[in-house]
Each structure stands twice: as C-alpha cells, then as structure tokens.
Amino acid sequence: MATVQENWQTKCTSISQRTKYIFNTALLSDVKFIVSVSNGESESKVIPAHKLVLAIGSPVFFAMFCGQMADTRDSIELPDCEYEGVLELFRFIYSDEVKLTGSNVMHVLYLAKKYVVPLLAEKCAEFLRKNVDASSAFSILSHSQKFEDKDLENRCWKVVEVKTEEALASDDFVVIERSLVESVVKSEKLNVKEVELFKAVNRWAEKNIEKQGIASDGNAKRAIIGEEILKEIRFPLMSQEEFARFVIDSNILNVQEVGDMIKHYSQVLTSPLPYLQSPRIGVLRRIGRFKEYYSACWGYGGSLDSLILSVDKDVRLCGVQHFGCEGCEYTVYMEIKDATSKLYLAKTSGTYCSEKDLDHLYYGFDILFDSPVILESGKKYEISSMISGPDSWFGKKGQTSVNFEGINFTFSRSESQRGATNEKHGQFRQPSSLLILVNYTMH
C-alpha cells in the first residue's frame, strides 16, 4: 500500500474529495478488478476499488454487490473490458471527473452504457461531437447508431456529407457494416465524384473478402456488395475514361452491363439504364471570407449587422453561417433583400446553438432559409441580421472578393449598416457565410 498521509480525511473538505483520495488505491479497498491492458492481449492489470463507492455510483454495481445474487469475491475479472476504459469509468464514479482521449472515448462510452452511468455517457457523446472529423466519422457513426444517440449521429453525417472523399478514404470506412455502406450510397448529400464513391465501395468489398478468407474476383465482390448497393452507384455520372479505368477492371459488372454502358457513352443505347443519372444534390458549400479569427470578444448592441454581396454567376443561397461562442445560444432575425429595389427575398428567425466548425477554427451556427434564394449575376444583395446573445468569435482581414469554384463573390459595406460588421471584419463567417449548394456533374 502506498504511504497514507496522516489525518488525510481532515484535509479533504467534501465527500467527493475523500472518495477521490482513495481512487485507484488499496486504502480501504475491499474488491479488485482484473482487466486486460488492451483488447485481445493476455497481459492484465489490477484496479483496487471500493464496493460502497461503486454501488452508489452505478445501479449495475449495486446489483453486483448488494443484490440477491451478490458477488462476494474480492477479485473479479472483466474479460470484455480494457484497463484504460475501466480506470476512467471508476475515476468518474469516484470524482465526477474523466480524462477522455480519442483512443479511449469509445470504450468509456461503452462502459458508461453498460454500467448505467448516464452523465458519463453524455460527457463521452459531447467529446465525440466536438472532436469528430473525417478520419473518425464512420467509426463514431457506427457507435452512435448502436447507442441511439441521434444528435451524435447527425453530427457524424454532417461531417461525412461535407468531407465525403476524405471520410471514404479513411481506415474506418472499409470495416463498417454493410447496412451503413448502403446508407452512404443512397445519400443524396455526398460531396464526392461518383467514381471515388465506387472505388471506396470496391475497397470495402475487397477488405471483407480478405477478412472472410475467400478468393477475390468480380463475382465474389459483387456478392459482398449486393444488388441494393450496386444499383445506387450512378455509373452514368462517370466519364468514359473513369468507367474504363476503374469499373471495368474491377470485374464487378457483367459483360452485358459493361456493354450497355459503352453504348450509353456512344449514344447508341436503345433501352434505359438501371442506374440513376441525376447528380446528387451535393451539400452546403462554405465560402470563407476571413483570414483570421478571434474568440469571444464581439458584442451585440441591438443594431443590425449588414453586408452587401454580389456574384458574377447565378447561385442558390441556402443560408448564412454566423459566429458564436462555445456552448452558447443566440436569438437571430435574418433577412436578405435586393439592395437596389429594396425588395425582401427571404426572412427567418430562431434560436441557435453554437458549435465548433468542422475544421476546429472557430465556433458558429448555420441559419438556413426555408427555400434557397436565387442570387442573379450582377445584382447586389443586402444580408442583415439582428443578433442577441453572448459575445462571440469574429473575423478579421476580410476579403472584398473571393473566387470559389469559378464564381466571384464580392463584398462591400452596407449604406444602412448600423452594427460594426463590414467588408473587412465582423460577423458572417462565410461569404457573408454563404452556404452554396453545389452539384457534382459528369465531368
């Protein structure tokens, strides 16, 4: 036993400090848990614990130690648990604190659910919501569906839709369940070329064939993929070169199907193809106008924040992203009008919760119109927001002109501006935080 400080109880001013003091020590311990260092390894470690503390922190431990079938052993093995996860579960029960990392959060979440510690489960879910990125989105998505956490699931889908190609290239994609692959290929909101989607599905099939230890050929891959997934891949959206280089060589399609596609490219096909030919509608594309971001020092004094925007090609404006602050809510009234005729094109209002952006650069929230607003080339539009809430992040070194995928967005100061936002700094993160709907086409 480690050296115990004399009169340690008197130096701990609360029950939580006293239970924290005896956490992971043999002091007063009446049970110990034997857990694997990591999954699949024979090496194990011992965690000393206290039945009373665990019983008042978890109904499962209460049943284990105090129920009709109480476990009276002083040494208990947990074969389905890992040391780091169990240690953090116990840390939370003893102290209301937890040290979450990308490597342990999934197992801690599993244990929080298993031992019915809902506050810990919520801390894990919040950690994942804040830290999910393209490389981890599919892994977290699988767990969020398993644990029925709809908010976390939606956050994962948002990342997949915005950063589809990066997410599909991750190591996690090739090990997800077939049902999730089917959901991906059926999604309209994918920011990826169709050939890249096909290549990812092909890699997923090859990985599953390798796992099953069967010979890899076109028929085996097709059996793994299944007709439901295959029919959702929009082969006609690929160029003829992409189809020839990647689809034909995969041997997944049969001779008749390949022949029909060649006739399609040659424009001599007489019967309809069994594949969808309409582009996926894409996702909200974000056009940033600031070069620098600053945290929680932009206040609101009841005045409109406004900005003038013009484009040199027609676009659909779906909404505007605003800056916010971590964990804060904002009440916003937003409008857009023709800057010349003063005709109002759209208005919306509501209360919004700020989240960290997908690249972890700042905190903000999206405000979407009920229907996209068509911005015509050469016209000027005024975007205005009345914002009420805590001080927020803001942008500096704003660009007066931004070229995005061949479209020029120009920003200027509004004559009716009464707030502090202008073309150089302030609110409206994206093109004035524009969220532009972009389609991927055949070429």
Report on the structure:
With 443 residues, the protein is of the alpha+beta class. Helix content is 33%, strand content 25%. It contains 15 helices and 16 strands. It has helices at 15-22, 51-57, 59-66, 83-95, 105-114, 118-131, 137-146, 150-162, 164-168, 178-186, 194-212, 218-225, 227-230, 240-247, 255-265; strands at residues 31-36, 44-49, 75-82, 284-286, 292-298, 305-311, 315-323, 329-338, 344-353, 355-356, 363-375, 380-388, 392-396, 401-404, 407-412, 434-437. The strands form four sheets. It has a six-stranded antiparallel sheet with strand order 9-8-12-6-15-14, with no helix packed on it. Helix 7 packs antiparallel against helix 8 and helix 11 (194-212) packs across helix 12 (218-225). The longest helix has 19 residues, at 194-212. The radius of gyration is 28 Å and the shape is flat. The protein starts with 14 loop residues before the first helix and ends in a 6-residue tail after the last strand. Residues 418-433 and 437-443 have low confidence and may be disordered.
